[in-house]
Design brief:
Layout (H helix, E strand, L loop, with lengths): L19 E13 L2 E13 L2 E6 L8 E6 L8 E11 L2 E7 L3 H15 L4 E3 L7 E6 L10 E6 H25 L14 E2 L2 H5 L2 E3 L7 H6 L3 E9 L5 E8 L2 H12 L2 E2 L2 E3 L2 E3 L1 E9 L3
Helix pairs in contact: 1-2
Length: about 280
């Protein structure tokens, strides 16, 4: 008598944090050879540990990126660094890295608002109006729900405190946003323009001289420079990001003499930051 083959049980790993569905635009910045690239996408679910998303671009597991998204009914956007956990057919999972307390509380606040029941208002005879916030406790169906009463003034104070904390988190995040780009020189305006936009504004360009030592050694490749462009269109400051040492100085000397059409913001010329790439080829 033959025995039926035993079925193998496959245990699916469970997430430590529950994901909550959301459908909002998401912007993602990834560094490729030292050059920042912006990838648009949509956030499909979120927790205070990470997000699931559909991104129009190729990512690699273990890659560090920066993400920005705006949750419904939350005035301050979520901006954070993240680690790519997986990507399959444009779908990817991103785990937050170093998420600030303010940003994490903002996500939890939105999750609470999205999953809780509508607030019920109740008036007492000798007291100010109360807001009843139902808190669902994991229990049998017939067990009563526990309720926490928060005065209206207390509720408004809580919202005001969260907005202040979110504002502080935004300010701190703005200071560290360029860490992914390894500390590029800062301009007074704080305005960063994509490389492809600034390339169209070049009005005077000097090609770099191929160093003889690099030519003899057979050295070639791409030199990436972070640049600050002055309001008059001249190159104010340069900082090497990547490239062979034999080529960096020649690229910097050439780019230093480039001239750009002044960048206007609010009708006046302003100082901007950008990234410049110079390619050296032997043939």
């Amino acid at each position: 008598m033959s025995a039926a083959p035993a079925m193998a049980l496959i245990e699916t790993p469970r997430r430590a944090f529950a994901r909550h569905p959301v459908n909002v635009p998401l912007d993602l910045i990834v560094l490729r050879s030292g050059v920042p690239e912006n990838l648009p996408g949509r956030c499909t679910d979120i927790s205070d540990a990470g997000v699931g998303a559909v991104v129009a671009g190729e990512l690699v597991a273990g890659q560090h990126v920066a993400v920005e998204l705006r949750l419904p009914d939350v005035g301050v956007p979520v901006r954070a660094r993240a680690l790519v956990r997986y990507q399959s057919r444009l779908r990817c999972g991103l785990e937050f890295v170093g998420l600030s307390v303010e940003q994490r509380e903002m996500i939890r606040y939105w999750i609470y608002r999205a999953t809780s029941q509508p607030l019920a208002f109740k008036k007492d005879r000798d007291a100010a109006p109360k807001i009843e916030v139902p808190v669902v406790v994991a229990a049998p169906v017939l067990r009563a729900k526990r309720r926490i009463r928060i005065g209206r003034s207390g509720f408004y104070l809580l919202v005001a405190c969260m907005l202040v904390l979110a504002g502080l988190g935004w300010w701190q995040w703005q200071k560290s946003w360029n860490e992914l780009e390894k500390g590029e020189p800062g301009g007074e305006s704080g305005l960063r323009v994509p490389p492809e936009n600034m390339e169209k504004r070049i009005i005077a360009k000097v090609e770099p001289v191929y160093p003889e030592a690099a030519r003899t050694a057979g050295t070639e490749g791409l030199v990436v420079l972070d640049a600050v462009i002055a309001p008059n269109g001249s190159v104010e400051r340069l900082r090497p990001v990547s490239g062979a040492d034999l080529l960096v100085q020649s690229a910097s000397d050439a780019v230093q003499s480039w001239k750009f059409e002044p960048y206007l913001s609010g009708g006046r010329a302003v100082e901007v930051e950008t990234t410049i790439a110079v390619e050296f080829r032997l043939n």
